[in-house]
UniProtKB/TrEMBL annotation:
The chain crosses the membrane at residues 7-24, 30-47, 59-78, 84-100, 107-125, 131-152, 218-236, 674-694. Residues 505-589 form the Transglutaminase-like domain. It comes from Blastopirellula marina DSM 3645. SMART domains: TGc (SM00460). Pfam families: DUF4129 (PF13559), TgpA_N (PF11992), Transglut_core (PF01841). InterPro entries: Bact_TGase-like, Papain-like_cys_pep_sf, TgpA-like_C, TgpA_N, Transglutaminase-like. The keyword Transmembrane helix applies. The keyword Transmembrane helix applies. Keywords: Membrane, Transmembrane, Transmembrane helix. This is Transglutaminase-like domain-containing protein.
Length: 810
């Protein structure tokens, strides 16, 4: 194929890949990248091959100015992300204009530069793993394009006819449409065919660049480039990664964890797929994955007070130093599972009185692998990480033990532990805390009180049993009250004269999980049931390849915990909770999922799990590879395992002490004067002796080493392949003067014996040689029966050879 045609196709592929990289990013218009991909390939046929349509440089400049003017309107009002998107659109506009020009070295170079700028912009917008795969393809296309561009440019430079044709391209009329192949009206004379590569380069170069050798060289260069890129990416230190932009446009909010809940903001809440953490459940004994039959709740912080003035739930309980301790050891006779949490480096951890707030299924316990810096506040019900260093660095990962309770009721109960000597009674601190969870401000809501009273009375439950009352209120939200879940809070359906929670409960009955949890907590308190709100994450996307839950910001959730005294608990679990228990209540519709993971069959499902796993690895080790993760994942392991042990070999003090110990073992003290006749003579003697040993070793190796090595190698060679039976065959024949000549194959050797052996002996030899070839070159393993048959044939051969010795000779 002609070199120019190859270059045109390669440039079109490069332009298409650059547009696809932009299209895979966070752009709001996918039609424009698709149009750029179509334009790249249409231009090859329409403009480069058929020459039906092309733009002159002047007309192309006008079109480029219009594209710049059109893109300015999108650039100035937006935030950083929108500005990048405006730049991406401008690059595509300019690319399309260049694609429909007649190609010269200038146009080719401009297209390559624009494509590279598209990759730079896409790297800031596209955070998906697909970007990595397309980037590798782009690298190979770029290397191919640059190689062809170099060949084309050098060919134009040395060939006067092609150079004249090339210079004439930039001097065409303003507009050319539906021109003929020779474009006689172009004013440039008859155009010659695109130059064949073989006709313009020396023969040796033409052979290289026009065959598969060029493809091989590009692949080799691509592999070397890829390896060098990976090494540079992970080896060079980097600053912390800053976020693009300063928030969402228009004051929009995104789903995510918050350490307090406020109901004074209206508008739409967007789903965020930002990764928070990866959570795996594994057996602490066998380290095998465990699949939970129920959706896990990852506890964050606990909110215990509702402020009417600000319409918000906050945390006011601040435990003293006696209320928080290290994680307790796992109780006996309880099945445990290890919960391993790997945090996204960008995940923001809330500060507590003891350090950083941690997310975990609760309650949690420790073993020898659990960090001693994890603090547990059993009364308030949250975990903290108390960093030992002065900087208070957050953990990148942590693991704790949790009870494995697949039963639904057990999974929803959390024991309330008491510090009283009598473990069946509550201590004063716990009583005070429970009293604070059933008080005060709830009596300000008249309509909420009446709604609560109607719900409990119509539920036909024992109103003195807190467990039954709490479940009745939960059913009111999930099944009976006509509530609906939404992330868009429309101010037009809100009553500004009512508290947002009371308005939600008695009027519109639509909202997200925070509304459901906040309203239910107030209803429970009206019934004098101590209650609190827990915020954290619920569930996640289970990946069957990595056996983990990928927890994202969209999985942020709020639910309610109500204290149930022992007397009100069901009889089946009452004995296990002598001081009562916290009952988890999820009032959000479809809040309790019975089965979160089902075994999915089919290659498509498996492929999606693999893609999710690659997506996670890409985010962890590429997108989120900040300075902290680089230090923990690369620099520190390298220093601990390689550099420090290697550095000990060059430690002067270590070597000095070693020499001192060895000298002392032969009675020499080198701590005295700096010169010692004894050590000098010993050094001279050791040097002479070492030189003599070296020379003797060289002579011995030359004289006996090589023949000995050939013999050993021959023995190992035969024995390794299990063909000792063939060696026995040759030995028996050699005793009768029949030896295999050097360079003679076993088949040739046996064929040369036909005149000297009987037919019976030849029939015995043939299967032995066949077995030798199968084992030696076919890798076969002979069975015991086959080996026994070979032994019988060797015995037959021996009998024939003995008869041959006794036969008369003439």
């Amino acid at each position: 194929m002609k070199v120019e045609r190859l270059l045109q196709i390669s440039v079109a592929v490069l332009a298409a890949l650059g547009a696809m990289l932009l299209g895979g990013g966070e752009t709001d218009d996918a039609a424009l990248p698709i149009a750029a991909v179509l334009a790249a390939f249409i231009s090859v046929y329409v403009t480069d091959i058929q020459r039906w349509f092309s733009l002159n440089r002047n007309l192309a400049n006008v079109a480029a100015l219009l594209a710049v003017a059109f893109s300015i309107s999108d650039f100035w009002p937006g935030n950083s992300t929108e500005k990048l998107q405006a730049i991406a659109k401008l690059l595509i506009y300019l690319q399309i204009v260049l694609l429909f020009q007649r190609k010269s070295t200038r146009v080719y170079w401009h297209l390559c530069v624009l494509s590279l700028l598209q990759v730079v912009v896409a790297a800031a917008l596209n955070l998906n793993v697909s970007f990595g795969f397309m980037l590798v393809a782009y690298m190979l296309a770029a290397l191919t394009t640059l190689s062809l561009f170099f060949i084309y440019r050098e060919t134009v430079r040395v060939d006067p006819i092609l150079k004249a044709e090339h210079d004439a391209i930039d001097n065409r009329p303003v507009f050319a449409l539906f021109g003929s192949r020779d474009e006689a009206g172009d004013g440039g004379g008859v155009m010659t065919e695109a130059v064949l590569l073989e006709s313009r380069l020396p023969k040796n170069l033409a052979t290289v660049f026009s065959s598969w050798q060029m493809f091989v060289q590009v692949c080799k260069l691509g592999i070397v480039t890829l390896i060098a890129t990976v090494v540079c990416f992970y080896a060079f230190p980097r600053p912390s990664r800053d976020q693009w932009g300063g928030g969402l446009a228009g004051g929009l909010r995104e789903t995510g964890f918050k350490d307090q809940i406020s109901f004074d903001r209206m508008g739409r809440i967007l789903q965020s797929d930002e990764m928070v953490m990866r959570v795996a459940f594994r057996s602490p004994v066998t380290d095998t994955p465990k699949e939970s039959p129920l959706e896990p709740y990852f506890r964050g912080t606990v909110l215990n007070r509702y402020q009417i003035q600000t319409s918000s739930w906050i945390t006011t309980y601040s435990p003293d130093d006696e209320g928080a301790t290290q994680l307790p050891a796992a109780p006996p006779n309880v099945e445990m599972v290890r919960q391993l949490v790997v945090l996204n480096p960008r995940t923001r951890l809330v500060q507590t009185a003891h350090g950083h707030l941690l997310f975990s299924v609760y309650p949690a316990y420790r073993d020898q692998l659990t960090s001693s810096e994890i603090i547990d506040d059993r009364l308030a019900g949250f975990l903290s990480f108390a960093a030992s260093d002065a900087l208070g660095a957050k953990p990148s990962q942590y693991n704790v033990l949790i009870p494995w309770r697949p039963a639904e009721l057990e999974n929803r109960l959390l024991a309330l532990e008491s510090r009283d000597e009598d473990k069946t009674k509550l201590d004063w601190r716990t009583k005070s805390y429970l009293d604070s969870l059933e008080k005060v401000e709830v009596f300000a809501f008249g309509e909420l009180q009446q709604t609560t009273r109607n719900v409990v009375e119509s539920a036909n439950v024992d109103q003195k049993n807190d467990f039954e009352v709490a479940q009745a209120i939960e059913r009111f939200f999930t099944d009976e009250g006509g509530f609906s879940y939404t992330l868009e809070i429309d101010p037009r359906v809100r009553d500004p004269n009512l508290d947002p929670l009371e308005d939600f409960l008695v009027n519109h009955r639509s909202g997200h999980c925070e509304y459901f949890a906040g309203a239910m907590a107030l209803m429970l308190r009206y019934q004098r049931i101590p209650s609190r709100i827990v915020v954290g994450y619920k569930g996640g996307e289970y990946n069957s390849v990595g056996n983990y839950y990928a927890v994202k910001q969209m999985h942020a959730h709020a639910w309610v915990e109500a204290y149930i005294p022992q007397k009100d608990l069901p009889e089946s679990v009452r004995e296990n909770y002598p001081t009562g228990a916290w009952l988890r209540l999820d009032p959000t519709p479809s809040g309790e999922t019975e089965v979160v993971y089902e075994e999915k069959g089919g290659m498509l499902s498996k492929a999606l799990d693999w893609f999710d796993y690659l997506e996670l690895m890409w985010r962890d080790y590429v997108v989120e590879m900040n300075s902290e993760r680089q230090e923990n994942a690369i620099y520190k392991p390298f220093a601990d395992r390689i550099w420090r042990p290697l550095g000990d070999w060059f430690n002067y003090e270590e070597w000095r002490l070693w020499v001192k110990e060895k000298a002392a073992s032969v009675g020499v003290d080198i701590e005295g004067e700096w010169f010692s006749w004894y050590m000098s003579l010993l050094t001279i003697f050791c040097t002479i002796a070492g030189f003599g040993i070296y020379q003797s070793s060289r002579w011995f190796i030359r004289r006996f080493g090589q023949p000995l090595w050939r013999w050993v190698r021959r023995q190992l060679h035969f024995n390794r392949h299990g063909v000792t039976f063939y060696l026995q065959l040759e030995r028996r024949l050699a005793r009768r003067g029949m030896r295999r000549a050097p360079g003679q194959t076993p088949y040739e050797f046996v064929d040369s014996l036909r005149a000297r052996l009987t037919p019976v002996a030849m029939d015995a030899i043939a299967p032995v040689v066949e077995a030798y070839y199968r084992v030696r070159f076919g890798g076969a393993v002979l069975s015991e029966e086959a080996l026994s048959g070979i032994e019988d044939r060797l015995t037959t051969l021996q009998v024939e050879l003995d008869q041959l010795d006794r036969s008369p000779r003439f």
